[in-house]
From TrEMBL:
Residues 116-181 form a coiled coil. Residues 316-378 form the Multidrug resistance protein MdtA-like C-terminal permuted SH3 domain. Residues 1-40 form the signal peptide. It comes from Methylobacterium jeotgali. It holds the Pfam family BSH_RND. This is Multidrug resistance protein MexA. It is found in: Cell envelope.
Amino acid sequence: MSSRPVSCRPRSFASLRAWSVPVAAGLALATLSACNQKQAAAPVPGPPPEVTVVTVAPQPIPYVRDLPGRVAPMRIAEVRARVSGLVVRRLFEQGSTVKEGDILYKIDAAPYEVELASAEAALARTEAALVLASQQAERLETLLSRATASQAQYDAAFAAKKQAEAEVAGAKATRDRAKLNLSWTDVRAPISGRIGRALLTEGTLIEQGSAQVLATIQQLDPIYVDITQSVGELNKLRRDLASGELDRLDKDHANAHLIMDDGTLYPLAGRLLFSDVTADPSTGQVTLRVQFPNPHDELFPGMYVRARIKQGIDSDAIAVPQQAIQRTTDGKAEVWVVGADDKVMLQPVEVGPVVGQSWLIRDGLKAGTRVVTEGFQKISTGSTVKPVETGTPAEQAALGKPQDSDETSDLIDVRGR
């Protein structure tokens, strides 16, 4: 058999074109099919994201000033001896509670007992002289009426009687002074309260009129807390009260609480007594004095405390939870609010002081506005959301109020200014 040589010449352009057309058509169909499948697999838009909101409502909130202060005793007395002598006995326990009139020290009374005996003897002598002078004056008065004694004799007898009466009065005063000195050998507590350490011991000789202090007694129940407030703040408070922006508190109600230096709340409320009428020229501050009951001696003079003083009531205050406040790059406050169409937008607000766990809003919100408190990462300006209210309307109206018996939690703390 004869074989035909294989031709290595390229195919003609027509044959290549005939081959490529079906291939291109197939690729186009495959691409179109893939696109249709992708379009069919596109996700369906989901429901709007849920966000937690609170509906703001006006509420009465006490206006409080958080001020530093020092505890001071209601009364303080330095015990001093009123007579000279040797201290022979101490009768009190250091650091104990004493009552007014309790004997604290005994001073050697022997010299004063002798003085009293001498004074009583002198009194008896003058009283005897008065009896004699009185009898002589009576006799001369009778003789004068019978014209058997002269007027001069009678006048002398009458003067002697008056002199004897004066000597008796002087002797009585000396006797009473001796009694008083003897009684002062018992050094007594001038007030009731807690007595400190003894500042001298038995055997100490005390000089009358000496400035030596034997002990110090402080009355601790009730007790004072002296705090300071700037004149500017006090004047602004008075203007707010005068204008009606703040309502006055009932003076008979407790209007102060104490926070101890360890952060705990003192369990008993106090009452603001007065503010000083003179400002400190170096600080521009006025002293306010608050009185607290202290039945268990938990407060000691000199302690540092913080006093929360209710100074008025904002009857229509609006507050939002602290987490609702957002801050711009320049530090201004704003909140996310949900409109009637459930779309969110940023609302600039002016914040005031802290109210428990909330911020007081001075401007920018009105009653009934829904404010977002959770879910910020799900929203953007103009997006639609599903608002979920927090709590019942009654609970919302109590926004900022304490969850327990700590009634200071709902006070306007002006440290937030």
